[in-house]
Amino acid sequence: MALKLLETADYTEMSRRAADIIIKEVKEKPNAVLGLATGSTVLGVYRELAADHRQHGTSYRHVRTVNLDEYVGLGPDHPNSYRYYMNHHLFTHLDIPLHETHVPDGLAADLDEECRRYERLIDELGGIDLQLLGIGRNGHIGFNEPGTPFSSPTHVVKLAPLTREANARFFPSLDDVPRYAITMGIATILRSRRIVLLASGEEKAEAIARLLEGVVTPDLPASALHLHPDVTIIADCEALSLIPKEKRKGDAP
Ligand SMILES: O=P(O)(O)OC[C@H]1O[C@](O)(CO)[C@@H](O)[C@@H]1O
Q1: Which residues constitute the catalytic centre (predicted)?
Q2: Gap from CA of 248 to ligand 1 centroid (Å)
Q3: Does ligand 1 come within 6 angstroms of the Cβ of 183?
Q4: pLDDT at 252 over 90
Q5: What is the mean pLDDT of residues 219-247?
Q6: What's the structural domain count of the chain?
Q7: How far does residue 167's CA lie from ligand 1's centre (Å)?
């Protein structure tokens, strides 16, 4: 199945287009299950959702959310935990009940059981209607690093050096970046009914070029998306800078 590719002029337009898709989903299905991501790329989307909620009153009262991942060892009060990030950047700006928002528990005593609980939770919610994804420079989605089997459910992962280095900008030093995380697996992500992947900036150009080459391999975790029937990639010019112009419109190979 072909991935749909939407090129945008810049980060702002990328964020607006993604927010529009989410807002439409929530209007059509007020109790939608949204799969959410963290990182820098999606921040603009969350700003757009917050602004739309303030200005137009789109309601999230019946929406449920599940986040992709969380660092092992960081709790909700830690400013670098993904739970803290989500509360701070999105949930407190919407009318969504906090108990309907879910992030893996990075402090769980039994991490394997936490992974199993998270899988059960997603099933009990009825599955993910719309999953938002960023992409790592090495092509990771969630924290599924190169080599992760496509059949993987939610699991504990040892973070790749490149990922720890890329995320060190949020921490006092590289040493403070956790070495492990819990992440939805690739199989978990692929069970979502619809997927929207965002990419912005030149540092993502290589990963996007490899993804659009169309080779499906665990060396590039995002390439698993070629196996899904409904994926839209929204990428700005810089993220598409390694793709010839004539190949940037419509369906990717
Ligand atoms: O948007 P960023 O900060 O480049 O991160 C890309 C991806 O990496 C992660 O932050 C994990 O490292 C994902 O959650 C995110 O989608």
Answers
A1: 69, 138, 140, 145
A2: 23
A3: no
A4: no
A5: 95
A6: 1
A7: 8
201 CA: nearest ligand 1 atom: 4
Amino acid in position 12: T
CA distances to 40, 57, 174 from 85, rounded to whole Å, are 11, 23, 19
- Predicted confidence (pLDDT) at residue 6 exceeds the cutoff of 80: yes
Q: Which of 130, 46, 131 is nearest to 85 (CA)?
A: 46
The rounded distance, in Å, linking the Cα atoms of 53 and 40 is 21
Q: Flag whether 186 is in a domain.
A: yes
Which CATH number characterizes residue 33's domain? Answer: 3.40.50.1360
**Does residue 215 form part of some domain?**
yes
- For 50, other C-beta atoms within 10 Å of its C-beta total 17
Would residue 153 count as lying in a domain? yes
Q: Residue 139: CB within 6 Å of ligand 1?
A: no
User: What is the band of 244 on the pLDDT scale with cuts at 50, 70, 90?
Assistant: confident
Task: Write out the H or E segment, with its range, that includes residue 184.
Answer: none
Residue with the smallest CA separation from ligand 1 atom 14 is: 38
Confidence band for 246, pLDDT divided at 50, 70 and 90 = confident
Nearest CA residue ID for atom 9, ligand 1: 39
Owner of token pair 């599924």: 144
Residue 213 lies in a domain: yes
Q: How far apart are the first and last CA of the chain?
A: 9
Q: Of 160-164, 206-210, 243-247, which range is least confident?
A: 243-247
Owning domain of residue 20? 4-242
Question: Taking the mean position of all CA atoms in its chain, how far away is CA 12?
Answer: 18
Whether residue 221 is predicted with pLDDT greater than 70 in this model: the reply is: yes
What is the set of active-site residues? 69, 138, 140, 145
Residue 41 Cβ inside 6 Å of ligand 1? The answer reads yes
Instruction: Tell whether ligand 1 has an atom less than 6 A from the beta carbon of residue 67.
Output: no
Cβ of 138 closer than 6 Å to ligand 1, yes or no, is no
pLDDT of residue 251: 58
Give the pLDDT band of residue 19 (cuts 50, 70, 90): very high
